[in-house]
Write a structure and sequence with these properties.
single chain, 299 residues, mainly alpha, Tetracycline Repressor, domain 2, 2 domains, 14 helices, 0% strand, globular, disordered N terminus
Length: 299
């Protein structure tokens, strides 16, 4: 018994648990995917030589802003997080961290992230980062309990990272920036809806409804994934038709887009959790693969 207590109270164990709590609060794994999109946008927009340190500053600013957004999300949802199995062990619902500490962490991360992007790149990127943070935390998060339109709202900050990265490189919002935003914006819908299908029962306990149809897990909801994946396939080929990438890259982009669409159709045909889970994992694979093809196609 005494051995267990000494391990639990050891300084190393306390520090390690605190680090894990902050990583969970900021959702670091999700943050890295978001930052990857921003880095892709930067590389796509930059011309000629650029110092590697720019990518590090962009990654740091992105992780801080996304971490702040996720922290505010968990502060607002700390009560309903207690109701869902996948979120019960987060620092706030598990009461390993108090709300004031989380608020301070969110404030420090958010301000620091916006300042990093503004100082090392340009004010436009800082403004876009602030818009992303505020819209995700204070519009999308509370709206999830009101209407499935929250998915549309949440897709806006979710699609801003590649635009922010591009603006960091160019200092402007132009047609290319809008195309990068549009691709990731449309991708958000099958991505969110596949997750909402898989976690439907958990979300239902918390009063969160993200599926596009009020009928829930039906073909009416599943058909939306097919439609948006088809639109995504078309929009993802715009860079080729406007000479942003070459033919080989476009063929590859069209190929992964067609596979993503096939997953959505398979889910529509079966309407089960297994096919929804496959679509969900497919969405995680599709985005970075397609974005890498964009960068390589430009190079």
């Amino acid at each position: 018994m005494s051995k267990t207590i000494s391990i639990a109270l050891s300084p190393f164990a306390v520090v390690l648990q605190k680090v894990k709590d902050y990583a969970q609060l900021a959702k670091l794994r999700l943050s890295f995917l978001v930052v990857f999109s921003a880095v892709i946008g930067y590389i796509f927009g930059v011309t000629g030589y650029y110092p590697f340190s720019n990518l590090l500053w962009l990654a740091l600013g992105g992780i801080l802003v996304v971490g702040a957004s996720n922290t505010i999300n968990q502060i607002i949802e700390r009560d309903i997080d207690k109701l869902m199995a996948r979120t019960q062990n987060r620092p706030l619902p598990a009461e390993r961290m108090n709300t004031l500490e989380a608020i301070l962490a969110a404030g420090v991360m958010g301000i620091a992230g916006i300042l990093v992007l503004t100082y090392f790149f340009n004010p436009i990127s800082g403004v876009l980062a602030a818009i992303s943070l505020l819209s995700y935390a204070f519009i999308y998060t509370p709206l999830k309990r009101v209407s499935s339109i929250a998915v549309f709202v949440g897709a806006i900050p979710g699609a801003l990272p590649p635009m922010i990265g591009y603006v960091c490189a160019t200092g402007r919002i132009d047609f290319v920036a809008v195309v990068l935003f549009s691709i990731q914006f449309i991708w958000q819908f099958p991505h969110f809806w596949a997750i909402a299908w898989v976690l439907f029962d958990d979300y239902k306990k918390a009063g969160i409804m993200l599926l596009p149809s009020t009928s829930g897990k039906t073909r009416m909801s599943a058909i939306h994934n097919v439609i948006y994946c088809a639109v995504l396939l078309i929009v993802s080929m715009i860079p080729y038709f406007f000479n942003m990438v070459g033919l080989v890259a476009n063929i590859f982009i069209a190929g992964v887009g067609a596979m993503f669409l096939l997953m959505a159709y398979n889910h529509y045909r079966k309407c089960d959790d297994a096919s929804a889970r496959m679509l969900m994992f497919g969405s995680f694979i599709y985005l970075p693969v397609m974005q890498l093809a964009l960068v390589l196609g430009k190079m």
